[in-house]
Amino acid sequence: MLSLIEKAEDKHVLSRDELICLLSEVSLLPEICAAADRVRQKYVGDGIHLRGLIEFSNICKNNCCYCGLRRDNVKIHRYRLDEDAIFKLAEYAVTQMGLKTIVLQSGEDMWFDCQKMCALIRRIKTLDAALTLSVGEKSAEEYQAYKDAGCDRFLLRIETTDKILYERHDPGMSWARRRKCLDDISRSGMEVGSGCLVGLPGQTLESLADDILFFKQIKADMIGIGPFIPHPDTPLGNAEKGNFDLALKVMALTRLLLPDINIPATTAMETLAPNGQIRALQAGANVIMPNVTLNECRKYYELYPGKSATNCAADNTLAQLRAKIAAIGRYVATDKGFHQKVKHI
Ligand code: SAH
Ligand code: SF4
What we know:
Blueprint: H1 2-11, H2 16-24, H3 29-44, E1 47-57, H4 83-96, E2 101-106, H5 114-124, E3 130-134, H6 140-149, E4 153-155, H7 163-169, H8 175-188, E5 191-198, H9 205-217, E6 222-227, H10 244-257, H11 267-272, H12 276-281, E7 287-288, H13 295-298, H14 315-327, E8 331-332
Parallel strand pairs: 1-2, 1-7, 1-8, 2-3, 3-4, 4-5, 5-6
Helix pairs in contact: 1-3, 2-9, 3-10, 4-5, 5-6, 6-8, 9-10
Residues 60, 62, 64, 67, 69-70, 107-108, 136 line the site of iron/sulfur cluster.
């Protein structure tokens, strides 16, 4: 088993069976995390990229069974920020907080049509920052329009590569369509971010191994891995939550196989385990996405419970975050943090 970890660290290749083997052996977690930390250091260095996350609308036409923003959740108070409010938040994050990337995330809110999104992209790109969108499934033409308006990156998690599981938990959605969206994003020239949930009811270790191989196959530029956290106002409210250690292991194995990509220490990791983000940063992650959404909206962007309390980037918490980063011998990177492809076999 240890030789498998060595092989992954040296060659960045593992077969499906080898991945399943490593995923099933609980005792190997420290060794896998340590190897991922070394690979992270070698390929992307000690800098941590901070991306300012703006959750600009919690209105969603979809009904994903795990997500608190799903359209059938009538208990949630819905909000939508307008272009000026979004721009002001982005401006503050860039000019006052010194962040180098803005991430705009929302439910699939059809009010923001292609024209409105492109106007917003052009305006935010007047700031000196990279821009990432995470607004769900769009047509190839729309992704191309986002790129042409200046958007640099797009995040769309595949959630799971198990098609049957995906379509069970995302009623009315098609796995093939989501897969095609990732191709269209890639073809547009934007950097491609994807990722998966760990601990969805019915998910197997085999399918997690497939997820990791899928990330390699699509040549992802960034991958976010988050443990599933049940939300009481969803059909999966009583399901068991995802296992932190397993999510950490999937993330560490992703770093071993895709050594030079960007990997966030996700908010869901922090929500599920004390110090979860710092543990993730020491197991392969090199990105944190501090939340810069307005206080009064943040509590309503509840993909899962407990999320709104974590990772707020008011100035004082940003200082705390910088201190935590320094305490583990790392530093906040000052560049925009694009995927730097490093030649490896
Ligand atoms: N609507 C967009 C972006 C917002 S959702 C989209 O779906 O792509 C962002 C991510 O939140 C999703 O990709 C999903 O992986 C995650 N998420 C949703 N519900 C969650 C839950 N209960 N636990 C953990 N992560 C969740
Ligand atoms: Fe909407 Fe995204 Fe939540 Fe699905 S995961 S319900 S698409 S916000």
